[in-house]
Request: fold
Amino acid sequence: MRFFNGKTVPMSFYSKHVFICTNQREDGRPCCQDHDTRTLFKHMKEQARADGLLGPKGIRINKSGCLGRCAQGPVLVVYPDNVWYRFKESTDLDEILEKQVKKGEVVDRLLI
Ligand code: FES
Reply:
């Protein structure tokens, strides 16, 4: 158990939660899926699975709809760290997984 706003609440179900925007727009406005983030999402999830990180008390990686930072996309956010990144390729996601997710170390070059 932990305390939040003066109340006792259960411990977090996941230690970290990553949301990767895979939003696709049909009207020509910029969106993260323009950069094939669905494929990149699969890569990050497979890497996390191979590292044994997924599951309760571990981490969760989810596709998300628009996160409201389209012009800076493609983007992801890591909670509860509340750290946002712009990424381009699978190696960027590998670095975010290795540093931010596993160690809590910020990847400066990808920060937004
Ligand atoms: S489409 Fe990805 S942040 Fe808006």
